[in-house]
């Protein structure tokens, strides 16, 4: 069953696997594309440490995924706030285009120059604000976005500081623009997909649930921890960051509550999601996952998960 999203993404299903930094590599991306969704590379895909040269690994990862699938795959362009340097996103864009990537997930405030270049080559631009508002969504459309992702506070990763949940964000954004909107934040099973469609979305953007699939490079011990945890195990450690609890995260949560404005920066100094989620050092860093993690209790293959989520679209 096709709709405007599948037509734009050239996929079987209106489903995007969201970028999750170190954890979304060629194996996962290709598996999603083969299962009928859009597989999306996150920053640092395929890398194991910061000592490795990022651009070369990115190119290898793209080629590796392309060798495993003819399906649609996307690259993430993470934008800095407007007025700041966008040269890293610029380099990622140029190298990805040279390798034939034609789908870009562009995160952050819309940037005229980057949007113009994506559109000039006829590539597809999927815009995701970190703090979605109707005004910003309209601006994204003006600058040429093909699809908008409306992300709610329920999500895993860096969360919107405005605190608005998925249930209220999706219909506001869907009402503000005439291009298709994908819902993001807390979608872990078919009930979430159905709710998203009822709220006016025409597709879904799913991150956390893919962390616990057989093809995901999330450390086995971390997959187990996610499956055993519930929303009560999550701590707010910064205005825009949650983590499953461990001693270091408890300390950060305590400092954040006491007014420390640097706790997000401190999570980055600890290596972000890399130590605990990629390397399985559960005591050493953040474990970022959405507030619906009670629903993540099994480790299916990507194909099984996509089939479950997309059962209404056959
Ligand atoms: C562990 C983890 C890492 C993430 N890293 C990134 C990232 O590097 N860049 C980005 O734009 N979004 C990142 N995200 C956010 C996802 O792209 C997506 O917005 C989110 O996962 C959707 O909500 P869900 O987790 O509830 O499905 C990350 C999310 C998670 C769970």
UniProtKB/TrEMBL annotation:
Record keyword Oxidoreductase present: yes
Residue ranges crossing the lipid bilayer per the database entry: none
Keywords tagged on the record: Flavoprotein, FMN, Monooxygenase, Oxidoreductase
Molecular-function annotations in GO: monooxygenase activity
Pfam families from the UniProt entry: NMO
Keyword Flavoprotein: yes
PANTHER family: 2-NITROPROPANE DIOXYGENASE, 2-NITROPROPANE DIOXYGENASE-LIKE PROTEIN
Function per UniProt: Nitronate monooxygenase that uses molecular oxygen to catalyze the oxidative denitrification of alkyl nitronates. Acts on propionate 3-nitronate (P3N), the presumed physiological substrate. Probably functions in the detoxification of P3N, a metabolic poison produced by plants and fungi as a defense mechanism.
Identification of the protein by name: Probable nitronate monooxygenase
Organism classification: Bacteria, Bacillati, Bacillota, Bacilli, Lactobacillales
